[in-house]
Amino acid sequence: MSNSFSSKLQDETLAPFLKKDAIVTIKIGTGYLQQIASIITLLVEGKTQEDLKNIEEKIKNKEELEPWMAAIATLQVLIRTVFEEADKEGLVEYKNLEESLKEDLDIPSSTIDSSPSEQSPE
What we know:
The chain has helices at 5-9, 30-44, 49-60, 67-88, 97-105, 109-113. 56% of the residues lie in helices and 0% in strands. By secondary structure, the chain is mostly helical. The chain starts with a helix and ends in a 9-residue tail after the last helix. Helix 2 (30-44) packs antiparallel against helix 4 (67-88). It contains 6 helices and no strands.
């Protein structure tokens, strides 16, 4: 295909636009989805719990969102949609949250399973 997207972009008189009501199927890897999710962390930096609760209220009441709120809501919808589609394809595994945290943090089970009083002082 000699008329690739990249070569079309070289024509500075043209700009790409999706057709109205277009739905595009893309493949997103786990690492890229994690990068998208990390953007939410940057957007909520310095925000209070009240600020975050305010997003839910505004969405529920169909009020206009501030730009940072709209960005968070958009990313959350994207992530949820990816997970829904991945689940349909059998690509999601469901894990116990506590076990998942242990794996992510690489903490031995005995450290989390015992209470602080049961741990020996070091």
